[in-house]
Amino acid sequence: MLLKDEVEMLRRITLFSGLPPAKLKLLAFTSDRVMYSAGENLFHQGDIGDAAYVILSGKADVLVSTPTGQLKVAEVEQNSIVGEIAILCNTPRTATIQTTTPLEALRIRKDDFLKLLADFPEMAVEIMRVLADRLSQTTSELTEARSRAQRAEA
């Protein structure tokens, strides 16, 4: 994939869609392209957040550890970004990302990602929207799961 193709892929990510082409080119240039086979992990729940990943191709499961084992909570695919929460919140990774197909991604280092946010505050607003959507979805899913559990107990 050429640099111009990476820039085009970044432009498709809602988070980066408002950035000027020169900034997207710089972001693509400073990012590392990484390849994974099916069944590999981009990172593990609890790891230190050192980078975010833009999925260029392929699919992966978002897994969280529970007392009964790994639980799949979502799936990510092309044009998704993962790993940004740990970077933004300075917390350990909240989930494990495990590929289900061969996957290609751009690895954006924490320092580069945070510099982009400082240079483009509107990107921070978009991140808040994305995180708020995820939180809303998670809250709905937890509410539904709790209702099912209560019905099962009755």
Automatic annotation (TrEMBL):
<dbReference type="InterPro" id="IPR014710">
    <property type="entry name" value="RmlC-like_jellyroll"/>
</dbReference>
<dbReference type="GO" id="GO:0005829">
    <property type="term" value="C:cytosol"/>
</dbReference>
<protein>
    <submittedName>
        <fullName>Crp/Fnr family transcriptional regulator</fullName>
    </submittedName>
</protein>
<dbReference type="InterPro" id="IPR000595">
    <property type="entry name" value="cNMP-bd_dom"/>
</dbReference>
<dbReference type="GO" id="GO:0005952">
    <property type="term" value="C:cAMP-dependent protein kinase complex"/>
</dbReference>
<dbReference type="InterPro" id="IPR018488">
    <property type="entry name" value="cNMP-bd_CS"/>
</dbReference>
<dbReference type="Pfam" id="PF00027">
    <property type="entry name" value="cNMP_binding"/>
</dbReference>
<dbReference type="InterPro" id="IPR018490">
    <property type="entry name" value="cNMP-bd_dom_sf"/>
</dbReference>
<dbReference type="InterPro" id="IPR050503">
    <property type="entry name" value="cAMP-dep_PK_reg_su-like"/>
</dbReference>
<feature type="domain" description="Cyclic nucleotide-binding">
    <location>
        <begin position="15"/>
        <end position="134"/>
    </location>
</feature>
